[in-house]
Amino acid sequence: MNEQRRGTRRERRKKESKKKHLGSIFLTLIVLALALGGGYWAKTSFFDTKENTIPKTSEQKPAVKNNDEKPAEQPFQPTNKTIGKRDVAIYDEDLTSAKNYTTSAYYGYEVNLTKQATLNNKKYYLASLENQEIGWVEEESLTDDLTKTWEKLSEPALFPILMYHHISQGEDSLYVPKEEFDAHMQGLKEKGYYTLTPEEAYLVLTTNKVPSKKIIWVTLDDGYTDVYTNAFPTLKKLGLQATMNIITQPEYPDNKVTKEQRAELVNSGFVQLEDHTLNHIDLNALEPAEQERQMSESKKLLTEEIHRPVTTLCYPAGHYDETTVEIAKKVGYKMAVTTTYGFGASSDGLLELTRVRVSPGASKETFLAMIGEK
Ligand SMILES: [Zn+2]
């Protein structure tokens, strides 16, 4: 990332020196462009690029053939819609730019649409997520309701929320070896499980609709480096989603994912980051004001870093009480997960969701039995 930034700065310096030499020509061209009435479009359009703080790791999207047409912008009342397509095409500058790419990193998030433009009879919208412009998206990638095609259940939804910590060899019960994790994930794949993002888990719990018959939410606590090293490649390979609960100011950062690794996880579209407080202190042992600080400052830090809404709190060591739940609600989490055993259900309350702890030593068969497979 630093390399990239340095590179960008170098390029910018290069451009600047060129500009000095060609200054008068540029000026003439700009004046001409303004005179021709292109000024409005150039200022407020596809050419409006912002450098994203998170590197793009997703696939390049081939440029749209635009037949030399210029995108035409229409007056538009800003509105919110949800990214309803897994591989959404993002157009950074004009539609023919080489910077265009597809990504699943925005799937399921509600975006703010601020501008509308048409090119070749297709509509495009300029989308922002948590106050960061992400680029232009096609109309067909947006939806008013992510659950539109989901199946309504007759019984209240009940699904396993898995709890992992380390994914590596270790002495205590927090360490699940990579081989075992791989076997568990392979088992989910073979049995046809749909792995939920936090946004989807919330929709399941609040609408009682499901995207698939078999659903599961994979969570990994504390943000250990071995999750990045050992679990992430497996998730990517199998195309499974998992949520990592991050301690935003950990006392021991050495074995935790770095900012660059977190960015890569988020941009992959396979891992979502949620909140495990600032310092991982038992919340119920703290005064209410400090509990609130542990949550709200952490939520703010994480939101600003990943430019995604942070919806879920993971209580450190599973310690919480009624006051903690009240504060979590006030701080604005939509869900919170505990370490109490049980499948996830809205009847527990969205801020007291129970989970299934996965300890070392579970074969694929044992693991599948734990989540109710025969
Ligand atoms: Zn923890």
From TrEMBL:
Organism whose genome encodes this protein: Pilibacter termitis
Transmembrane segments: 21-42
Family matches, as PANTHER family: POLY-BETA-1,6-N-ACETYL-D-GLUCOSAMINE N-DEACETYLASE, PTHR34216
One Pfam entry name: GW
Domain (NodB homology) ranges: 214-374
Location of the region described as Disordered in the Swiss-Prot/TrEMBL record: 53-79
Protein name, per record: SH3-like domain-containing protein
Superkingdom assignment: Bacteria
GO biological process: carbohydrate metabolic process
Annotated InterPro entries: Glyco_hydro/deAcase_b/a-brl, GW_dom, GW_dom_sf, NODB_dom, Polysacch_Deacetylase
Recorded GO MF terms: hydrolase activity, acting on carbon-nitrogen (but not peptide) bonds
GO cellular component: extracellular region
Domain GW: 72-147
Assigned keywords, A-Z: Membrane, Signal, Transmembrane, Transmembrane helix
